[in-house]
Design goal:
By secondary structure, the chain is of the alpha/beta class. The chain has 16 helices and six strands.
Length: 358
């Protein structure tokens, strides 16, 4: 992690040649969490020499106008220059009033059931919108901008996004960090990235936290039997931080019930089961090998004998799945019924679980 911090510190230096940096990695491993924690520390300690910082998620965004508008409206003013800060607030106020004026008129037409698609063609509304967008964009200068969830964008093309990023760095003196999962990009976007990355992206970082790194983020060091969770996730090669948060939430709710039962000590048994069942539900959905474990577990058997002419023959996927199960030492348990209920509904059937345990 030290290397990541060193490169990011270099990127944040206004004199650095790195204007556009990408932070790549698999889904769910904590890229956004890592960046937000890193940049919050810089902001809190007044370590940034930019006019403002903006975080933008492109999740579902369909136009460059949405993208541009988000840069201003998500911005956090960083400049200590009184004149510059006053200017920012003044223009933001003007833009907000224009937006509200435009929105009020649009709502009137909506109420009268006018086609929404015609609104943009009505001159008065179109002019207000363009003026607001122009004022917004004119304010964006010397910003630090984080563009996240690129692979989850709406109808925007990646080459459009990269084109705006190039304009922001060359004409607006902004620094931009792009956060995305390259493997999840659409085929056309992968081609665009291949074509433009050398021209636009100055430096690329791969975020690869260890399982222990992410465990330490979610669980305290005193958490009981955390080594069991680490062992299972290591076998499954999974360090998804969102999954870890779900596991912790489920176990914390279970522990509240267990604590009400005298001399109950099921943590060492239950925590690994919760980890495994959450992995089955949220992770092994697309990978054929992982799905095989899911299917076998669902039907209550870990018999990996193929239904072939030769019952002793097993596929490579079946051999892999069998080895994983052998390492995990997990078989079906009556507790799985209660954990499955929690997975589907978000809570335990407390009375039933209590009666079973007591």
């Amino acid at each position: 992690m030290d290397e990541l911090h060193e490169t990011l510190d270099k990127f944040l230096n206004p004199d650095s040649d790195i204007q556009v940096l990408s932070l790549k990695g698999d889904w769910g491993i904590g890229k956004t969490y890592f960046w937000e924690h890193f940049i919050k520390n810089k902001i809190d300690n007044d370590k940034l020499k930019f006019k403002a910082y903006s975080y933008i998620s492109l999740f579902g965004k369909n136009s460059l106008a949405d993208f541009k508008s988000s840069i201003l409206y998500s911005s956090k003013i960083l400049s200590t220059d009184i004149e510059q800060t006053a200017e920012s607030k003044q223009i933001s106020t003007v833009v907000s009033k224009l937006k509200k004026s435009y929105s009020d008129r649009k709502n009137i037409l909506d109420y009268l059931k006018k086609p929404a698609t015609l609104i943009k063609d009505v001159p008065i509304f179109s002019n207000y919108s363009r003026l607001a967008e122009s004022l917004e964009y004119s304010l964006i200068k010397d910003y630090l901008i984080c563009v996240d969830d690129i692979e989850r964008k709406g109808n925007l093309l990646l080459k459009e996004i990269l084109g705006l990023v190039d304009e922001l760095r060359t004409k607006k003196r902004c620094k931009i960090i792009l956060i995305f999962n390259e493997d999840a990009l659409e085929k056309a976007d992968k081609e665009d990235l291949k074509s433009y990355r050398e021209k636009i992206i100055d430096h690329e970082l791969k975020y690869m936290p260890t399982i222990v790194n992410n465990l330490n983020i979610v669980f305290s060091s005193s958490y009981p039997h955390i080594s069991e969770v680490e062992k299972i996730l290591t076998i499954l090669n999974c360090n998804n931080i969102r999954l870890l948060k779900k596991i912790k939430s489920c176990y914390d709710d279970f522990k509240k019930i267990e604590d009400s039962i005298p001399q109950s000590n099921l943590t060492k048994f239950i925590l690994p089961r919760i980890t495994f069942l959450y992995w089955i539900k949220y992770v092994c959905t697309d990978d054929p090998k992982s799905k095989l474990i899911n299917e076998k577990y669902k039907y209550g058997t870990f018999d990996f004998t193929s239904i072939e002419d030769n019952p002793e023959r097993k596929t490579e996927d079946e051999i892999w799945a069998e080895e994983i199960i052998d390492e995990l030492h997990i078989q079906k348990s009556p507790f799985d019924e209660y954990i499955d209920f929690y997975l589907e509904n978000g809570f335990f059937e407390q009375e039933k679980l209590y009666n079973y345990m007591y």
